[in-house]
Amino acid sequence: MRIILLIVFLLTALGSLQAQPSGRPTTASPLSTTRDEVSYRFLLRGQGYFKNAFEELLDMSTPLQQLVKSSIFKTQSGFTDQKYYVMTNLAPVGSFVYLYADAQSRGVYAKVIGPLHEIRLNVELDLRISTAAAQALGIQQAEPFSLTLYYWDSSNR
Hints:
By secondary structure, this protein is α/β, with parallel strands linked by helices. The protein contains four helices and seven strands, in the order H-H-E-H-E-E-E-E-E-H-E. A hairpin with a 4-residue loop joins strand 4 (96-101) and strand 5. The longest helix has 18 residues, at 2-19.
């Protein structure tokens, strides 16, 4: 009988010790863990002139994420200075976005320079990226392709 009481006492004491804070930092919440993973992806895999501007906004709030159907528009700029540009209706003109090509595991920071006009060429597209951005992402195809777009809508900026 004494052994049973001793076992019950030890289990009770052990349970109360586990319930007390140990002084170690607690694990992060799922929301902050997701935010850290997103931040980590941006910091390690992104390139481009607009990186600092995007990361300043990243410190203030978490961007929206969307899989988009994209195509390329031809430019002659951005190849040497890494100034990448996009046209889209998802993010406001003048804002900064992050484009991530999952297949190539590459990303670039870009600036929205205008809306995507509703013409036959753009009917099924969400986004058009500059040729310099496509080259940096390792995209060589002429037909539409998928990218992950990180951005802030006008209410989150």
